Amino acid sequence: MVERRLPVVTLLTDFGLQDYFVAAMKGVIYNICPEACVVDITHLIPPHDVIGAAFTLGAVYHEFPRWTVHVVVVDPGVGTARRPIVVVGDQHYFVGPDNGVFSVVYEREPYIRVYHLTEEHFFRSTPSATFHGRDIFAPVAAWLARGVEPVHMGVPVEDFIRLKFPKPVPKDANVYQGIVLHVDRFGNLVTNFDAALLTSVLGEDFRRRCQVIVAQTRISGLRRTFGEVPRGEPVAYIGSAGFLEVAINQGNAAQTLKATRGTEVSIVVAPEF
Amino acid sequence: MVERRLPVVTLLTDFGLQDYFVAAMKGVIYNICPEACVVDITHLIPPHDVIGAAFTLGAVYHEFPRWTVHVVVVDPGVGTARRPIVVVGDQHYFVGPDNGVFSVVYEREPYIRVYHLTEEHFFRSTPSATFHGRDIFAPVAAWLARGVEPVHMGVPVEDFIRLKFPKPVPKDANVYQGIVLHVDRFGNLVTNFDAALLTSVLGEDFRRRCQVIVAQTRISGLRRTFGEVPRGEPVAYIGSAGFLEVAINQGNAAQTLKATRGTEVSIVVAPEF
Amino acid sequence: MVERRLPVVTLLTDFGLQDYFVAAMKGVIYNICPEACVVDITHLIPPHDVIGAAFTLGAVYHEFPRWTVHVVVVDPGVGTARRPIVVVGDQHYFVGPDNGVFSVVYEREPYIRVYHLTEEHFFRSTPSATFHGRDIFAPVAAWLARGVEPVHMGVPVEDFIRLKFPKPVPKDANVYQGIVLHVDRFGNLVTNFDAALLTSVLGEDFRRRCQVIVAQTRISGLRRTFGEVPRGEPVAYIGSAGFLEVAINQGNAAQTLKATRGTEVSIVVAPEF
């Protein structure tokens, strides 16, 4: 088998799956770069949820091959003064609106450059004012996939928008307060406590030493996986995105615990057990 | 990078996403044409909604590379006397049932030929009577993608089915009456007024001269994009498919205005503002 | 056109479409095997529904090219003692947890070998305990797609888990009792009576000789397709997966007949009509 690098382009939007929007972007990409391998991340970001898109992108972009082009279109300000940008990270490209949707990328990447996309010959001719996904971001992504350098596409900017993600805060000597960042398909609650933070606060044996409190339910200690507690029981663990999660083994924690994005989550340091 | 034309095959169905139906079509296609690049347009057309499929196809097929094969399977009459057809447009192929699902293609393409698919050696062996998507349309699409000419697949027909899309009608000297054609994922209302019609009726400055009335809400003038009105306000504009649309900036017009497909939309000519 | 075999990898999960889970698997696969053609079967298996995944896989895997790698991740026991396995069938590979999800494959394939995946250098480094789809099954699938032989990935096992699917049973000389196995997107009821069984019980003219009773509705005889009865009428036929199905022509049988998975279905032998 010949190993040939197909350029990968990922798409992450709030466009849903019932309309022609996603397919229009793919048509544009294949027209410019027939070699592209276009992969959907998701199109079910809730409409206009920039924070949700930033979280989802941050959880997955690093799994893709070097110089994958990640297109993110959650863009309530489409057609207004907000700028279309390309972000060059250490090994990945990102294309989308300058509305904070790349905030997690800015946190994670060791080195970034951001360009305001101004060279309109890389856009679709006569772009619409309401569908920059098709008319600006898809064609730019396809030209990146073909090897055009971002420096030829626009001008460097420094004042791009970074959204602040809420971080857990200490409440008293023994309690840290965080929130649910994301509820996944299974109803698992992804919190904003990451493993590094837990280690720094609780030490290397944080799994044994912490209690998690969410919606009046207290969970003692962290497990490795759901199946280490009986079916129907709550369980806390470090999830696959690197954050503390709360689940119900083979159940739905969001429904059972009546928790949702933004619900408070406390960590209690419990040296005695 | 070598630029090699991979043959693109698009799929547009009412099959949904929870069953094996779409994957069965893809398996058949990759078996016959391993080089194919199969792209989903959508599989969430409401069951049996031939008009909805025709609209969606019309909004997107022209974005794809030349000689893309577009397979459309919304087919309540599967297995009955309705004919399987291939339509050859100016630069695209279309494969599906002869039930009007290609009506927008017939309007748009400068030149078409239609063949009744009769050559059964291009079908799956022993086709079922209930799944022509897998057994007839997918294999025919794959053979087209491999370069077989449609003329070898069937016989030309002229009496193919064209559905009439409702066009706006004048009500009096100053009022035109149309309808909502489609409600998209964001609740935006796509009407059957297209930009060419508005220009012919209202003149080149139609954006300034028209009032849009839908569900007792009156919107003065057209904007370029949502963000030109305050958040939560209704806005009219020419959408990315070329039709007049009504939205609520960062809201859901269908829910707020209680409008749906078929809801009446009026354009009032307003020379004074 | 050069016919080059791209290795096909299919994905069948209960991960849903709103999270990063499916995309993470694809990123891992493209990193290891850039040539792969990754195809979604479905990701909307109800959470933890191993039986539903087994049914869906059984209905479609044989449509794919020889040596397609089918990855199935419906895995309530992820991270516990349940084994990750690869199944080698006559012409297909299957990768997933040893929890019975391949039971239909075991029934259908003339010859199988099953390996417990133990060679961790084919896994993602430091696999998580909660996302073996990304960390074990996706990389193993990609290495299979690149041509690594399963024998190098683990040790043969014989005691893999086979789930029993309920078979129809005779109730008296003239009545057989089965159930609804699956309700599809259209509300069609797929039963566990297959065509071979009907032939053996009722003879070659079973279409004419059987009455189907489901939820107090009696349907006389089998048709070829929906459209052979008037719109809104119930109809029984052999569906595209080879099982007896009950539908309402252009309607939704599950809603109208108030039937769901597990609902009883009877076949009455009716020699007189």
Give a written overview of the molecule.
Three copies of one chain form a homotrimer. The first copy, chain A, folds into two domains: 8-156, S-adenosyl-l-methionine hydroxide adenosyltransferase, N-terminal (Rossmann fold, 3-Layer(aba) Sandwich), CATH 3.40.50.10790; 169-269, Beta Barrel (Elongation Factor Tu (Ef-tu), domain 3), CATH 2.40.30. Chain A contains seven helices and 15 strands. Chain A has helices at 21-32, 50-60, 103-108, 132-145, 195-202, 206-209, 253-256; strands at residues 8-13, 37-42, 69-73, 84-88, 93-97, 113-117, 154-156, 169-172, 175-183, 189-194, 210-214, 217-220, 234-238, 243-248, 264-269. In chain A, the strands form two sheets. In chain A, strands 8, 9, 10, 11, 12, 13, 14 and 15 form an eight-stranded antiparallel β-sheet that branches. Chain A has a seven-stranded mixed β-sheet with strand order 2-1-3-5-4-6-7, sandwiched between helices. In chain A, strand 9 and strand 10 form a beta hairpin. In chain A, helix 1 (21-32) runs parallel beside helix 4. Chains A and B meet through helix 1 of A and strand 2 and helix 2 of B.
Number of strands of chain A: 15
Low-confidence stretches of chain A: none
**What percent of the residues of chain A sit in helical stretches (DSSP H or I)?**
10-25%
Question: What characterizes the major β-sheet of chain A?
Answer: 8 strands, antiparallel
Q: What would CATH call the architecture of the largest domain in chain A?
A: 3-Layer(aba) Sandwich
Q: What is the total domain count of chain A? A: 2
* CATH level-4 homologous superfamily of the largest domain in chain A: S-adenosyl-l-methionine hydroxide adenosyltransferase, N-terminal
For the largest interface, the chains and their residue counts are: A-B, 34 and 41 residues
Shape of chain A: elongated
Helix-strand topology string of chain A: EHEHEEEHEHEEEEHHEEEEHE
Average residue-wise pLDDT of chain A: 92
Query: In the CATH hierarchy, what is the class of the largest domain in chain A?
Result: Alpha Beta
CATH domain fold name of the largest domain in chain A: Rossmann fold
Number of helices of chain A: 7
Radius of gyration of chain A from CA coordinates: 21 Å
Query: End-to-end span of chain A in angstroms?
Result: 55 Å
Percent of residues in beta strands of chain A: 25-35%
Oligomeric state of the chains in view: homotrimer
